[in-house]
Predict the 3D structure of the following.
Amino acid sequence: MENKKALIELIDVTKTYDEENVVNNINLTIYENEFVTLLGPSGCGKTTTLRMIAGFVQPDKGSVIINGKLFNDLPPYARPIHTVFQRYALFPHLNVFDNVAFGLNNRSWEYLVNFFGKDSIAEEAANIAGGEPKKSTIKKVVKSRINKAVTDALALVKLKGFENRKVDQISGGQQQRVALARALVNKPQILLLDEPLAALDLKLRQNMQYELKEMQRKLGITFVFVTHDQEEAMTMSDRIVVMKEGVIQQLGTPKSIYNEPINRYVANFIGESNIIPGTYVKKDLVNFLGVDFACMGYKFADGEKVDVVIRPEDFDVVDVTKAKVTGKVIFSLFKGVHNELEVQIGETILLVHTYENYEIGQPIGLSIDPYEIHMMKVETNE
Amino acid sequence: MNRLYKGLARPYQVWLIVLVFIPLLSMLLISVSNYSVGMDLANLQITLSHWNLLYENVSSTPGTFSNPFITAFTNSLTGAFFTTIISFVLGYFVAYQIKRSRVKNKLIIMTIIILPMWTNLLLRVGGFANIMLENNIIESIFGINPLGGLFGTWPGIVFALVVTYMPFMILPVYTALEKIDISLEEASLDLGLTPFKTFWKVIFPLSMKGVVTGSIMVFLPTFAGFAIPKLLGGNIYFIGNMIENRFIYTRNYAEGSLLSMVVLIIILGSLLLITRFDKEGETLL
């Protein structure tokens, strides 16, 4: 990360609506070519954060810095950022082609000439005119460049042949792609995506996840993605920002957030997990469920109370005689790939995923590898 | 259930037949009858003799020839045209400002706009006619006379028409504007268009439905109405005044029916135009 260039910097950004801090003192740096996901339940401030980057919302405090320049008061139309909206926001009075061409068609002449490259346009126009090109020839060249850019963008999102369709005559998935093409055709430095997949069905959503990731890698554009779906975030992101009530809870790679959640909230939000109260006995030894377990990599004070996090799939289901702890299966659900079990050990009920079949009431033995045991500080305010 | 619904529709069907279809048919019949004054079923003859009203010049003042129908038609068209244009420009502006305003209860603003309609039209127009004369009550009380001298002039007529019919423009335009998703505006800004360009490329095209509906709702009553030109038009008369004249004063029902049919054709044409722009009729409500 160190050698990467910071593209977006949010410094102490706060936004208040009706005396409530929707976004509370956020600090976040997003680098070039990154796929960053803002993850959290609705009302956690992720969309407001996105809208501040887009320029639709002005922060009350703090600064939004993009490319090293202060962007706080710059209106949305002056930012090199484009957004894919949640409900796509396609223009109903235009067809697919004109929707995608909308941004370029309405740019100033100077902008377009710079956008396509002054020299390259002059050269092409000179070739056509066979000498000093007239203004009308240059105009024609720019027009054809726009057409080509739009056609390319539609090909990129696999919508070739849909140019003349009306936007209400295509499916939700296709509208989604049009929205994407409409933003990408302008070659933004940053693409903001506000829960763009929320309205699609599961299969389509999964396909789009891979395609988005692929596109981001290919085009080298920074994607800032907003979602409440942790699976979506896991699949696509380079880094995930978990938010709650306007505050960033944890920031890290999908792996680190999944494996080492910093607190109960993150652990619960990112996938299913068992959170068990325990005691850090001494280095590499933790006691929970009445048993001492070997652990590794955590440093707490000896005897300190900790919360132990174990993912349901991290339990090893073993023979009762060889098990560290034994319990009773009180619930079993076949999920296709695995079985979802609820195991009662004393007062505690654990969620366990296993490939083995267990009947309700059957005893079960569990053991846990040291590296699967994650620990967090006990939160006193909850 | 289905039969019950059919039964419920009966009264209205009868109503339609008795009060709409039969009168329309009689109107058509009377327009090709030989009646010149009153009606006389015993001597009914089918003739197109009255239709020359549409093209024949008559001598109104000695030495000059003109066709009163053409004059009335042109007057109606001119009045309706200018009223529609002015109502559009002013009404759109008002509707747009209401849409943009941060006032929570926009219904109140709309009510204020409709409020003048609660006063009887004739009373309102009569009032206008009064203060458009020289030496009117405003002048004697306040010593100023802003509308004085407008009586019987085109500006006076168009002023009264605009004041009366502009709400019919504001309402559908406002409805159309309100239906435009705010995210479309944001998408346009996001794609690099300034607010001014966004208005012309997104907001205005998407509000066209409302503009067309509103224009027709202003155009039609202005074109076919007779109260305003009658009360403050002086010598300027519209086609509605001509129809009124035929039916009430000269009792030339054939000519009156013929003129009514001309108006009817204009109305039907306009409604066809609405249905082409606004298929669901959403801005009509």
